[in-house]
Amino acid sequence: MREHAPVYRHPFGFWLLTGYEDVSWLLRAGLSVEDRNVAADNPLREMREVTYGDQMPRFDGRSMLDRDPPDHTRLRRLVSKAFTPRAIEALRPQVAGLVDGMLDAMARARHVDLIESLAFPLPFAVIAKMLGTPSSDHERIRELTGIVVRSLEPVADPDLVSAIVAADGELAGIAAEMIAWKRENPADDLLTALINAEDEGDVLDEDELIAQTLLLYIAGHETTVNLIGGGTLALLRDPGQLALLHDDPGLVANAVEEMLRYDSPVQASRRITLEPVTVGGVEIPAGAFVMASLASANRDERFWGPDAAELRLNRENARQHVSFGAGPHHCLGASLARMEAAIAFERMTARFPRLAPDGEVEWNGRINLRGPARLPVSTG
Ligand code: HEM
Predict the structure, then answer these.
(1) Domain spans, the chain
(2) I need a surface site. Which of 43, 94, 158, 345 has the fewest CB within 10 A?
(3) Using an 8 Å Cβ cutoff, are 327 and 27 in contact?
(4) Ligand 1 atom 34: residue of nearest CA
(5) What are the record keywords, sorted (predicted)?
(6) How many angstroms separate the alpha carbon of residue 218 from the centre of ligand 1?
(7) pLDDT at 59
């Protein structure tokens, strides 16, 4: 598609951009992210209305990810007051401790599923710890967020639709309870900071607080799992690159950027045009739903050169990937994800230089938050 139809109108009515320059432009162009702006006669909008009817997931549309200015600006500013670079940096020793504990368990077991042993529990434990949520809720939250993220994709199975609606309601209830509890038991954590976040007298109201808390919870682990899982898989498939990282641990920061580029943990972002725009010489009308394929932009030979499809941990411009998006919605958690992944890969490759595949990879079956669901490895 990059070659023949880089700006493509799908018969279902949405547009798909696959080239690096077009995708970068779209993300930075300040277009809308609010679904209500999709033209009423767009088949995609009808599909969603038919799927959910009046049971649209409750917090769908209330997080900053789904809001345009001025709401986006104010939500992002308030959350940024709590989710600061300092708060993230302060977690470094705890992240290292968590990784070491998980690697110890992997060393003892020798044959493990990397997703269950490290890629999932690490980001989940980190965001849960950061928010300061009671651990009795964690197992249920894990199950529910796994269901709710399916609402980011077209769903046909009516049982799954009901499950998404139910999970969405239950999660919102758990978040409301957590917030009420935290108001009574404030602590030095992100949830307390969100509750108290204030900008010239402006604060997050109850629904906004619930929506931003759930966004951080979900974005905090359902993405980084794919970076650690997909990155490990890429290394296992290319032992020369694994050896390179083992021999030169200083490469780890760039290696993480290259893993992000090579296998995008979030495959696509979407925007909605409020007026006609011209991209790559093609005019897209107002009210169009436009998907930007981050994964494809990250492999565009025209930008990255002829080795775009290869993993090169020392690629000089790896950091120019678009895996964290770009422009006004650029990922707020990018530095947290980078830190978790760098610590995990540095310690894992130092400890298990002979890490090897140990069975079939299973994929999670998701279109957007795509990654391995099971990755059997032997620690050597
Ligand atoms: C936004 C990717 C980890 C919080 C985004 C966007 C992308 C992304 C592509 C922009 C979506 C758009 O333009 O429509 C990733 C990837 C991650 C990751 C690949 C891990 C490898 C995290 C973490 C957190 C987080 C750990 C927080 C704990 C957010 C938030 C937004 C966001 C709050 C919304 C920003 C806004 O709308 O202004 N992320 N993310 N992300 N991410 Fe991440």
Answers:
(1) 7-378
(2) 158
(3) yes
(4) 65
(5) Heme, Iron, Metal-binding, Monooxygenase, Oxidoreductase
(6) 10
(7) 59
The string of DSSP codes covering 217-271 is: HHHHHTTHHHHHHHHHHHHHT-HHHHHHHHH-GGGHHHHHHHHHHHS-SS-EEEE
**CA-CA distance, 143 to 40, in Å (whole number)?**
34
CB contact at 8 A, 66 and 33: yes
Count Cβ atoms below 10 Å from residue 9 Cβ, excluding itself.
15
CA distance 43 to 192: 42
C-alpha 322/C-alpha 345 separation (Å) is 21
> Is 127's C-beta closer than 6 angstroms to any atom of ligand 1?
yes
Counting from 1 in the atom list of ligand 1, the atom nearest the Cα of 227 is: 21
- Just give the CATH number of 7-378: 1.10.630.10
Q: Is 298 in the pocket of ligand 1 (CB under 6 A)?
A: no
Residue 122's nearest CA partner among 102, 152, 105 is 102
How many whole angstroms separate alpha carbon 218 and alpha carbon 231? 20
Question: From the first residue on, what is the mean pLDDT of each consecutive set of 10 residues in the chain (380 residues)?
Answer: 96 94 98 92 80 70 91 95 90 97 98 98 95 88 91 84 91 93 94 94 93 93 97 97 96 98 97 97 96 98 98 98 98 97 97 96 94 97
Cα-to-centroid distance, 354 and ligand 1 (Å): 32
Is 224 near ligand 1, meaning CB less than 6 Å away?
Answer: yes
How far is the centre of ligand 1, averaged over its atoms, from the C-alpha of 337 (Å)?
9
For residues 135 and 71, give the distance between their C-alpha atoms in angstroms, rounded to a whole number.
32
Amino acid identity of residue 76, one-letter, is: R
Task: Kindly give the distance from the C-alpha atom of residue 266 to the centroid of ligand 1, in angstroms, as a whole number.
Answer: 9
How many beta carbons lie within 10 A of that of residue 280, not counting itself? Answer: 14
- Whether omega before 70 lies within 30 degrees of 0, making that bond cis, reads yes
Place of tokens 């899982």: 229
